[in-house]
Design brief:
Elements (H helix, E strand, L loop, with lengths): L7 E5 L10 H11 L3 E6 L2 H13 L4 E5 L5 H15 L4 E4 L14 H29 L2 E6 L13 H21 L4 E8 L6 H9 L4 H11 L8 H12 L10 E4 L3 H5 L1
Parallel strand pairs: 1-2, 1-4, 2-3, 4-5, 5-6, 6-7
Helix pairs in contact: 1-2, 1-8, 3-4, 4-5
Length: 264
């Protein structure tokens, strides 16, 4: 079950800043553990190489490079490099994101545009480059990491992030219908409040640096009583990337410990 032997997975945002496991790092390592050859991309080559090192130490195969996936020319270089290395792309994981605080009045136009570029344009550009390859191969699976912020208000004023993640989900749903008869599936995973190294940076933005208070507040928000882990996201991605989910497309799977059910 859930084996990916012979498949190639292109994972954007594959590194994690600091210690611990972020979503991209956990996803890349888990896909490799299940037999996939991983091509990882990150803005920071050092943290991408750390992910590569873990995969290779466990006996897997991985190649990494740096790229800005909000730029079409970088996306082309990334896809070309993956094809040159492995000759195919069976799985695409769109896993870059950025959250900035503010409502429409407080948020600058520049920050709004940056949020749209990072959170939804990146997925558009990666899909645009990879879809023809998957169609020619006879199929593939694209999994984009969205957020519960694209579904419900979860306590933080982050209008750009919320709007862009909602747009990602609709991009996924629409494209899934277009490509359904071409055997290319597109789905989203929407994490809720996850306890990853990113939380420390979010505490600076949303809680004036009160890390312990911010963590305690996030735990209390979740009906399950605690935040999730990057592995909760990675396991869901693995299912959607695998053949066991072959009849699932155009969907968003929420991984949030009941958070959105309690807020809607």
């Amino acid at each position: 079950m859930l084996r990916l032997d012979g498949k190639v997975a292109l994972v954007t945002g594959c590194g994690t800043h600091g210690d611990g496991w972020g979503n991209g790092k956990a996803i890349a390592v888990l896909l490799a553990r299940q037999g996939a050859k991983v091509f990882g991309v990150d803005l920071n080559l050092e943290i991408a190489k750390n992910t590569q090192r873990i995969i290779e130490e466990e006996g897997g195969q991985a190649e990494v490079m740096t790229a800005n996936v909000t730029k079409a020319e970088d996306v082309k270089k990334m896809v070309d490099a993956c094809m040159q290395k492995y000759g195919r792309i069976d799985i695409l994981i769109n896993n870059v994101g950025r959250s900035e605080p503010g409502g429409p009045v407080e948020m600058s136009e520049e920050t709004w545009d940056e949020q749209m570029d990072v959170n939804v344009k990146s997925a558009f550009l990666c899909c645009k480059a990879v879809l023809p390859i998957m169609e020619k191969q006879g199929g593939g699976s694209i999994v984009s990491i969205s957020s519960v912020a694209g579904i419900a208000y979860v306590g933080k004023p982050q209008v750009g992030y919320a709007a862009s993640k909602a747009a990602m989900q609709q991009l996924t749903k629409t494209t899934a219908v277009i490509y359904a008869d071409r055997h290319v599936r597109l789905n989203c995973v929407a994490p809720g409040l996850m306890f990853t190294p990113l939380v420390e940076r979010l505490a600076q933005k949303y809680a004036k640096g009160d890390y312990e208070g911010f963590v305690a507040h996030r735990h209390k928000q979740v009906p399950a009583g605690h935040m999730g882990e990057a592995w909760d996201v990675a396991n869901t991605v693995l299912f959607l990337a695998s053949d066991e989910s072959r009849y699932i497309t155009g969907q968003t799977i929420v991984v949030d410990g009941g958070l959105t059910s309690a807020t809607r």
